[in-house]
Specification:
eight-stranded mixed sheet; alpha/beta; Rossmann fold; 33% helix
Length: 209
């Protein structure tokens, strides 16, 4: 049993929180509007859930999920996340986030920019290429034929093991894409972004990314 801190409680954050609670983990949720605005969600999730500020959620988590609009990534409190494994679910949508020239030019990546903002954290890119409802709907026990696979990317081997174990617990196979920079292979508009793929199919899609 772990405590998972969530910075951001939108669709993806809520879906991860539900799966975490269903598997016996504590979750501490936060958003930009304040803990009191999460009362209904916390009540629905049950006794394993609580709400806090972003800094408190980050400090309390054994594992922290950052799931905010990319344009807000520099607002993430860095100090409470020092030394922690951080799952980055973010996607760059220029229509929402505005243009970031270094990403547009390919000189930087979404997760790389978050990692630069969190220099003392171990960032793992995951859960960005799956729709929120599918985090529950597509889950299946290990060994199920056609089981969906999700990709991860990160620079710290132990952090990736931690995240892979959580994803497998949630009901998905895991494909390790390599270092964090390779997370660009499952960014928006890439073949691996969105579709329900088995591990073998995912590897093929990632090779095209």
């Amino acid at each position: 049993m772990a405590t998972i801190g969530l910075i951001g409680s939108g669709n993806i954050g809520q879906a991860i929180a539900r799966q975490a609670v269903a598997h016996g983990h504590h979750v501490v949720l936060s958003n930009s509007r304040g803990p009191e605005t999460l009362a209904d969600l916390v009540s629905a999730l049950g006794p394993l859930a609580s709400a806090a500020t972003a800094a408190e959620a980050g400090a309390s988590g054994d594992l922290v999920v950052v799931t905010v609009p990319f344009k807000n990534h520099t607002r993430i409190p860095a100090e409470p996340l020092g030394g922690k494994t951080v799952i980055d679910t973010n996607n760059y949508y220029f229509e929402r986030d505005g243009h970031f020239p270094d990403i547009d030019s390919g000189q930087a990546t979404v997760s790389g920019m978050l990692a630069a903002h969190l220099p003392d954290s171990k960032v793992v890119k995951a859960f960005n290429n799956i729709a929120a409802p599918a985090i529950a709907e597509d889950a299946a026990p290990a060994g199920t034929p056609g089981r969906r696979a999700l990709p991860i990317a990160g620079d710290d081997a132990e952090a990736k093991k931690t995240v892979a174990a959580l994803i497998e617990e949630f009901g998905f196979d895991v494909v390790d894409v390599g270092p964090l920079v390779e997370g660009r292979r499952f960014d928006r508009d890439k073949p691996a972004y969105g579709p329900r793929l088995t591990a073998d199919q995912l590897r093929e899609a990632l090779a095209q990314g």
